[in-house]
Amino acid sequence: MEKELLYPLTNQCRFDQKLDGLWDFEFDRESQGGAQHWTQQLPDPIKMPVPASFNDFFTDKDSREFTGDFWYAKRVFIPGSLRGQLIGLRFGAATHRATVYVNGQEIRSHEGGFLPFLADITSAVKFDAENEIVLKMNNELHRDALPAGDTAVLKNGKKMAKPFFDFYNYSGLNRSVHLIATPQNHVVDYTAVSTLQDDAATVHYTVTTSQAAASVSVTLRDEKGQVVATGNGRTGDLVVQHPLLWNVRDAHLYTLTIQLKANDQLIDEYSDEIGIRTIAIAGHQILVNGQPVYLKGFGRHEDSIYAGRAFDLNVEMRDFELMKWMGANSFRTSHYPYDEEVYRFADREGFLIIDEVPAVGFKMAAASFLGGLDQSFFDGDWTEELYKKHLDQITDMVHRDKNHPSVLAWSLLNEPDTSSESAVPYFEKLFADTKALDPDQRPRTFTLNEDDTFDTSYCKQFPDFYLLNRYPGWYHKWGYEISDGEAGLRAELDKWAASDIDKPIVFSEYGADTQPGLHKLPSVMWSEEYQIELLQMFNRVFDSYDFIRGEQPWNLADFQTVEGNMRVNGNKKGLFTRDRQPKAAAFYLRKRWLDIDPNF
Ligand SMILES: CCCN1C[C@@H](O)[C@H](O)[C@@H](C(=O)O)C1
């Protein structure tokens, strides 16, 4: 059960109850919780909302910045009607690591704060009674973990997060917790991969069940509930005549229903929405259903006022409204996999997602930007342990998200240091070990940072298409010097153009910090006018090279970062403010995007 990541649902065979709301919460400032048996009950808890990051609720800095162990607890009644089923607790995200206890019994631990995990609690449950659910969590950053960073110990003995990345180390139960129950013999996983024929489509499916017994049948229904194909067996092909394809910003979904039966008795049933579409890279084109697509969208963050990194349906609703208003058709889940609801939004709205693991900060320059070492990250003695966690989180990301039609590609790293040959063995193994994970064989990529150019990167051979993060006009050649920034950018792209590389390039980051309401004529940096000028410069460049097949400025909205002399209460490169109101650049870019044919 513990490697199962299917989206929870309730039906005649399955049970799902969200455990969101107020939990007991307590910092373990002396790391004594284990010795003092907090696993049974927290000594002096406060109430803490779930899902939420704990940080921004507090009014004292020691609590907001707390780094170390902290505990959650909740008493949950489990009805006797579930007796005989497998009982699980599914945590959408526990950032960054957690150990789960039920009625004082240790169940399991999990490392990785941006993907779900399931704890099989069947053996510890008391039915028709209250059960004590306790989590011991920790939010420290380490170089051999994702996202990468350090944990400093100040002279006063307090720990402090030192991220090698530019987003705040929001921590806690950031996504929903579910109490679930499934039959002993149940659907563990499924895959659905489409191919297209003239006026038909074939959905090749596989079904994995927890036990070999029982027969499997599969039914595919269209949006009107009409059965369009059926199949029998744990694998097979569903042929759909005149399919309504899933297209960018013109999404059509089908409902796949899997039934498990023994002696004609229904044992388990699982349903999910799938889209019939194909993804391919052909030369410098990104193809969806064989048609070229130009990506217009954003780098984003799961970030909002009050709840920090927690998934908030209200914020997500507003973000999709803003992206549709802008004429966008895509986004990258920078710099970590987002809540499953986000992918379901994108499936319904026809948005393409570049799905990214939190392999961010694999670059000592980023650390030195924040006070680290000056060496190649991949020369570090931490890379062996790091690799295990890295591959584990890519595996879970693909396992969780593989059936979403919206997922276009997998971004395996954000801005790793590839300007040293020592990166090559790590990349060779990573791209080889991840090749077979996705039954749909989507493209794999990573973002190339300013220091990893056409001339300097040792790892250009690995990605199926390129994501470039480039900041002329902001981190260098800024202000009145931006013309030199444009010249430098064009010089690099001329090298890509003159090379024998024929793969798409998507600009996955570019932008300027902008203080909303700051106006200056002529412009200065931080003014709304300058943000537009910078975007105009990049757009002139994008329109000069036909192998540039996407533009995703940084960022959709302002977001929280660590304190620093380059951050004004967070990162201000948003086209929208943190409370999701437009800066002038949003109106400029909206006009550009609404005038562009999305298939040009
Ligand atoms: C040059 C570093 C790339 N990029 C990473 C992203 O996480 C940061 O927020 C962004 C920035 O500094 O605005 C830069």
Short structural description:
With 600 residues, this protein is α+β, with helices and mostly antiparallel strands.
Question: Topology, pairings included?
Answer:
Layout: E1 15-18, E2 21-27, E3 46-50, H1 61-64, E4 69-78, E5 86-91, E6 94-95, E7 97-102, E8 105-111, E9 117-120, E10 129-138, E11 149-153, E12 159-163, E13 172-173, E14 177-182, E15 187-197, E16 200-209, E17 215-221, E18 227-232, E19 235-241, E20 254-262, E21 265-274, E22 279-282, E23 285-288, E24 291-292, E25 295-299, H2 313-326, E26 330-332, H3 340-349, E27 352-356, H4 364-369, H5 383-401, E28 407-414, H6 423-433, E29 444-448, E30 466-469, H7 482-498, E31 505-509, H8 528-542, E32 548-551, H9 584-595
Parallel strand pairs: 25-26, 25-32, 26-27, 27-28, 28-29, 29-30, 30-31, 31-32
Antiparallel strand pairs: 1-14, 2-3, 2-4, 4-10, 5-9, 5-14, 6-13, 7-8, 7-10, 11-12, 15-16, 16-19, 17-18, 17-20, 20-21, 22-23, 23-24
Ligand CKU binds at residues 165-166, 335, 415, 449-450, 469, 471, 509, 554, 571, 573.
Shape: globular
Q: Tell me which CATH architecture of the largest domain applies here.
A: Alpha-Beta Barrel
Report the mean per-residue pLDDT as an integer.
Answer: 96
Which blocks of ≥5 consecutive residues have pLDDT under 50? none
Structural class: alpha+beta
* Ends apart, CA distance between termini: 46 Å
- Helix % is 10-25%
Q: How many separate helices? A: 9
How big a fraction of the residues is strand? 25-35%
Radius of gyration, in Å, reads: 24 Å
User: So what's the CATH class of the largest domain?
Assistant: Alpha Beta
